[in-house]
Write a structure and sequence with these properties.
single chain, alpha/beta, Rossmann fold, six-stranded mixed β-sheet, four-stranded antiparallel β-sheet, 8 helices, ABC transporter, transmembrane transporter activity, ABC_transporter-like_CS
């Protein structure tokens, strides 16, 4: 997954690995749950970089560690060994308050559940993180996002007045508003039908090409993963391969080879 070149003279490098060079980087990351014979090794010595302005999908069989990896990369879960960076900021061992600020300012999230506040309008849901942080909304950027996502005529509507696809578009807009270093998607189309899911995935794809966004998505769906530039494959907590510019058929073949 990473170059074999060693660059221990660079900031952040560790012996045997190149320095971090992505929107998100991991070096020799391991994570276990439990102890002794009952321990579950969720991540085993994982090292990789997620390039800026690219859409990456993480896939693998159930229990492969893909969700654990995403949670650790996003600073939502701790690791037992290794180092992690978001951009040029190392998050390994970062104090809770600093980690919370970093996630608020530099990370966006899109989940399977839309996680919208039912009493707020679409616009209020989009701007909620900025409001909670006491910041000022960039109205020009909000307008661009809303127009790009086709939400201009839905901003005054509350969630129950929106379709599932529109609600997920609001969630995507909320994630984009702060211009984060990276957006993490956890099965973002899992609650959508295939047509609506395709529309949301196309919007995520466009956010990379048109807005310079970096996206890391965990999914079990080969069709969803085919929208990504790159598919990272995992099994038993380890990285076992990757695909570039793949199709649902090539992804299915790769997963079948893993026993998924």
């Amino acid at each position: 997954m990473t170059s074999s070149t060693t660059s221990t003279d660079l900031p952040g490098a560790i012996p045997g690995f190149p320095a971090p060079c992505g929107a998100v980087s991991a070096r020799a990351v391991s994570k276990s749950y439990g102890r002794g014979e009952t321990a579950v090794h969720a991540l085993r010595d994982v090292s990789l970089d997620f390039e800026p302005e690219r859409f990456t999908a993480i896939m693998g069989p159930s229990g492969s560690g893909k969700s654990t990896l995403m949670h650790c990369l996003a600073g939502l879960d701790s690791i037992d060994a290794g180092r992690l960076w978001i951009g040029d900021t190392e998050i390994t061992g970062l104090p809770d308050a600093a980690l919370t600020r970093l996630r608020r300012d530099r990370v966006g999230f899109v989940f399977q559940a839309f996680n919208l506040v039912p009493t707020l309008t679409a616009e209020q849901n989009i701007t909620l993180p900025v409001a909670l942080a006491g910041g000022t909304v960039d109205t020009a950027w909000l307008q661009r996002i809303s127009s790009s996502l086709g939400l201009d005529d839905r901003l005054s509507h509350r969630p129950h007045e929106l379709s599932g696809g529109q609600q997920q578009r609001v969630a995507v807009a909320r994630a984009l508003l702060t211009r984060p270093d990276v957006i993490f998607g956890d099965e973002p189309t899992g609650n959508l039908d295939s047509v609506t899911g395709g529309e949301v995935l196309s919007l995520l794809r466009r956010s990379c090409s048109e807005m310079g966004q970096s996206i890391i998505m965990v999914t079990h769906d080969p069709v969803a993963a085919s929208y990504a530039d790159r598919v990272v494959l995992m099994k038993d907590g380890a990285l076992v391969g990757e695909l570039e510019q793949s199709t649902p058929e090539t992804i299915l073949g790769a997963l079948a080879a893993l026993g998924a």
